[in-house]
Structure formats: structure tokens, C-alpha cells
Structure prediction request, 168 residues.
Amino acid sequence: MTTEADDCPVDWDAWQPEMLATLMFIRVGDQVLLIEKKRGIGAGKINGPGGKIDPGETPEECAIRETQEELHVTATGVRKHGELHFAMSDIPDILCHVFLADGYEGTPTETDEAVPRWTSVNELPFERMWEDDQFWLSQLLEGQSFRGRFAFEGEHIVWQQIDWSVDY
Prediction:
């Protein structure tokens, strides 16, 4: 994996995502609410709830809706903290808006899409997550804002760049 601009396989200035999506991470104390994804992109992996943005929907509206659909909870204290730009080799390129919430209403419930999974912020299961998560998720959970660009070959990163303290 490289982070040298000259070695980047993607022209980020011309890059256009094929899919707009969201991720939501609900942190309460030292716990974060994750999901084990049951279907779709990333099935079998652990992640935050999220999904594709519908026409006319804002990224924040999508993140809240997807969390409701996948876990039957409504995130509260929601704030955008990041963007992930994914240049993928075998699935559509994705621009993902990343949100952090400090609470929720309802009871996390298993659905056809996801199994809820409370996890200590100090024991994140990176071995079951997307490879890029290890480079930004812990910082997100501490409230850090960021913009990440990742080029993937299959499920492995071949290039990455993360800018911190980005304003949203």
C-alpha cells in the first residue's frame, strides 16, 4: 500500500462516485453500536448502519433512516464528521458521508439487514471490518473529523490518504 501522490492509481480531481451513501456510528459512553451486515455490499462484515442516499434525501436524513431501518432505533445528537471516497475495483465507486451520534431512541433490534452489536471503543473488531476502518474509526469515535480517499483492489487497500480536522 502506498500513500505517495505520484503512485496514486486514481485521478481524484476527475473522480465521480457512482453511489452516494452514509454510515452512522452511535457512541454512548465507551460503547459504540455496530452491526453485523446480513446482506448487500459488505455482507458478513461488521460496520455502522448505513446505506444508499435516496433522491431528494440529505446525507443526514439517509443516515438516520438507514439506522431506523437496520436497527429500529433513531440516532440523536447526530453530526457529520467525515467523508470516505472509495475507488473500487469490483463494485461501484462510493462517496460515503460519515456521522457520529451521541444517543438514540428505541431498542436496537435485529432485522433482515443487520444484527446489532454493542462494542467497546477500545476493542473494535477490525479483523471483521473493511480494511480502511482501522485508519479512521477510532479517531472518529473520539470526535475527530476527516476526509479519506482509498483505492481498493478487491477488499484490499492499494492507496490511501486521510486529511484530518476537516470542517463540515
About this structure: The mean pLDDT is 95.
